[in-house]
## 1
Amino acid sequence: MKKNILFGLLLILLTACGGNAQKNNAQVTETETKEQVADASTVNVYYFHGKQRCKTCIAVGDVTEKAIKELYASNPHVKYIEVKTDEEQNASLVEKYEVTWNALIITKGDNHIEITKEAFANAINNPKALTELIVKQVENYELGITN
C-alpha cells in the first residue's frame, strides 16, 4: 500500500515538473564547471534540473542555494552550482553523475553522494531537515569523511 502511494506521488511529481515555468538563475560556464570538478579541495553542491520545474523542484534549489550561500559564504572551498541538464555545455557533468532527471549531489574530488530523495521529501514541508542534511554531508567531506 505504501509503495503504491509513494509511486503515485512520484508519478505526480514527475508529471508536474514539466508543467511550470522555470525560474531564472545564474548559469555556470563549461570552463567553470571543469575547473570545479577538477579541484579536489572543494566541496561542490550540485543541483541538476531541466528547463521546467515544479514547486518542489524550485524549493530544492532555493533551500540548497540559501544554505550554502549563508552558511559557507566565507569558505571558498564550498560551492553551490546549479546545472541545467538540458544545456549542451553541461552534458559531460550530467553524464558523469548519471543524472536522468533532477538531482542534488554533493561532491569532493572523485567522491560524491546523492541526496535527491531526501531533498524532495523535505524541501517544502521541512526545509530545516534538508539544510541539516546538506550541512552534515558538506562537513563530512570537509573533514575527509566519505560515505
## 2
Amino acid sequence: MNEGLIPRRYAKALYIVSKERGEDKAMYSLMKNLIGCFVSVPELNDTLNNPYISVADKSALIRTACEHGEKADSLLDDFIRLLVDNKRIGFTRLIAYAFVDIYRKENHIYKVDVESAVPLASQETARLKELISRHLKGGIMEYEMSVNPSLIGGFTVRVGNEKVDASVSNELKQLRLNLISK
C-alpha cells in the first residue's frame, strides 16, 4: 500500500468534516501541536506502532499530544476512534502532516523558515518579512526563525520548494566551485 495515499485520504476527510463543523482552525492548531510532539519526541511514532501498547493508551497519548495546552473537542475523539476502528493509528503522524499541508493550501498560508547565522534584530526581521510578503504577493505567513552558526553570516529563507541562500557559507562554496571549474 502507498503510505502517502492513506494518510492523505484521512487528512482530507478530517479537513472536510472539521470545515463543515467550523472547527477547521482549531483542528489545524491541534494537528500542529501533534506534529510538534512528533518532532520533539521521535519515539512517539514507534510507540503508536508498538503492538504491545494498548489502543486505549495510544488514544490517550494522541489526545494529550494534540491538546498541549488547548482543549480538544468531540471531533478529535471521533477522529481517534476512526483511526482505532480502522487500525490506522500508526498513520497518525503522516495524517497530521497531510492535514496541516491541506489546511495551509486551502487557506493560502505559507510556512516560511528563516535560518540565520546569528539572531536577527527586530528591524532586520521586519524588513525580511516585508520582502518575503512582497515576493509571495499576499497570503498568510507563518514564520519559523532559527539560528545556525555554520552559515558563518547571512541567512537562508525557505518557502515550500523555494530556497534563497544569502549566507556566507554558500558564497564560499560558490567561490570554491568557480575556482575548481577553471
